[in-house]
Amino acid sequence: AQSVAQPEDQVNVAEGNPLTVKCTYSVSGNPYLFWYVQYPNRGLQFLLKYITGDNLVKGSYGFEAEFNKSQTSFHLKKPSALVSDSALYFCAVRTLSGGSYIPTFGRGTSLIVHP
Amino acid sequence: NAGVMQNPRHLVRRRGQEARLRCSPMKGHSHVYWYRQLPEEGLKFMVYLQKENIIDESGMPKERFSAEFPKEGPSILRIQQVVRGDSAAYFCASSLGTDFNYGYTFGSGTRLTVV
Fold first, then answer.
1. Residues of A in Cβ contact (< 8 Å) with B105
2. I want to staple A88 with a disulfide (CB 3.0 to 4.6 A). Which of A8, A32, A38, A52 is the partner?
3. Ranges of chain A whose pLDDT falls below 70
4. Residues 6 or more apart from A32 whose CB is under 8 A from it?
5. Using CA atoms, how far apart are residues B13 and B55, in angstroms rounded to an integer?
6. In 3D, which of A25, A1, A28 has the Cα closest to residue A93?
7. CB contact, 8 Å: B99 with chain A?
8. What is the pLDDT of residues A49-64, one digit of tens each?
């Protein structure tokens, strides 16, 4: 089965500390992976994607993600968290549905950065 | 470029009424995807459309829900005879094509409340 999982409903981190938001996937073939962020009452904003190339992908707002094929993971990271990073984060993977490729999202992880 | 426009932002309907949600994709985008977001459930895929065609509706309930993307005008998600369980945020995304390199741009969503 093709799927994506975000094992943590919520991640708490102090401002200035590094943060990690976890994501694992299960697809056949090469994975196409995305991270999106959603602020309250807003739509999803694209952060970064992995299609091919370097395993460490750099994205918007200082975020990066590490693709690990052996662990089927694509964890989102940031070296130093800001209070303004507090939001809902979604991992997505391309899946085959009805003969077409669509992005399938995880349940989301709420990131709370404490001052 | 105004991005993906969804309207209305908020919609209140009484049980049994019809809800009509509109999505205007980014200029030049001919692929539209609808998602529903419920608390604790993340984003659930509903339907994928191209101009005048439904490509994949595997995530859409068989009854009461329909979607269209006419040659001219926005994509419409229609919910007939709404029930309280239809209360959710509905997001649409658009893309330039099926190549994942194009990415997906999301609208700000329509928050439907059924009273």
1. 46
2. A38
3. none
4. A49, A50, A51, A93, A94, A101, B100
5. 29
6. A25
7. no
8. 998 888 999 999 999 9
